[in-house]
Amino acid sequence: MDDFPRFDLGGRVALVTGASRGLGQAISLALANAGADVAIGLRDVTGASPAAEVAALGRSAFPVQMDMADLGQISSAVDAVVERFGRLDILVNNAGISPMDNAEDVTEDNFDATLAVNVKGVFFASQAAGRAMIRQGFGRIISLSSQAGFVALPGESVYCMSKAAVAHLTKCLAVEWGQHGITVNAVAPTFIRTPGTERALADPAFAADTVERIAALHRIGEPMDVAGAVVFLASPAASLITGHTLLIDGGWTAR
């Protein structure tokens, strides 16, 4: 009989971008709970961090300065992780921004800022991590796309475009790097209850409409709903999955 699927990440080193709160924090803790040591990418390394919670799970936590709009910081952060742990096995491209504006009101500054983090930052973080993974002959890259990359959300045209780009970039990198033992996947969540969505979901009408659109399950997602999918894609159980974007949308796009 073949080996049963394994979901443990013992001995692996992960780097999570945008890990100070919300999804990044939950993903960092879930990876640590599965056995990985976790480098915590932070836009401000002196600010809030789940490092103590990672350490409480018995894993090494390593906060690193990593503003995803700064290519120099991206490169130096990956180098620091490899120097500290000797390898980098898992990259989670979580950091992202989502300024809202009707298409006719989008400014060049907001357009550039969104693509700088959501697309350019994801590409160059993947490139830096990919180089390390190619050298070691193994890697798992998981990026945060969004259901917004598959459906149109009014007032979020630039964000939707950026998340669609992440889904397609995932396919391109998977095809290029599979020969090196690297899988590249993405997850695409619906609305998740995080500090970033707190203000929008505080509007009862918006929250009710969102729950209705999450057609199958009719509930707002929680951060661990996404973190579980990330752990799966990073685990040995997902070794034949690559180039795929996993929708975590409660049935929104099935409607």
Number of E strands: 7
Global geometry? globular
Mind telling me the CATH class? Alpha Beta
Largest sheet: 7 strands, parallel
Mean pLDDT: 96
Query: Gap between N and C termini, in Å?
Result: 39 Å
Number of helices: 8
Order of helices and strands: EHEHEHEHEHEHHHE
Strand order of the largest sheet: 3-2-1-4-5-6-7
Helix and strand composition category: alpha/beta
CATH architectural category: 3-Layer(aba) Sandwich
Please state the oligomeric state of the protein chains shown.
single chain
Attribute tags:
about 260 residues, Rossmann fold, seven-stranded parallel sheet, 8 helices, about 45% helix
Give a verbal description of the structure.
With 255 residues, the chain is of the alpha/beta class. It has a single domain, classed as Rossmann fold. Helix content is 43%, strand content 15%.
Mind sketching the topology for me?
Blueprint: E1 13-16, H1 22-33, E2 37-42, H2 51-56, E3 61-65, H3 71-85, E4 90-93, H4 108-136, E5 139-144, H5 157-177, E6 182-189, H6 198-201, H7 204-213, H8 223-234, E7 245-248
Parallel strand pairs: 1-2, 1-4, 2-3, 4-5, 5-6, 6-7
Helix pairs in contact: 1-8, 3-4, 4-5
Q: What's the short version?
A:
This protein has 255 residues and is an alpha/beta fold.
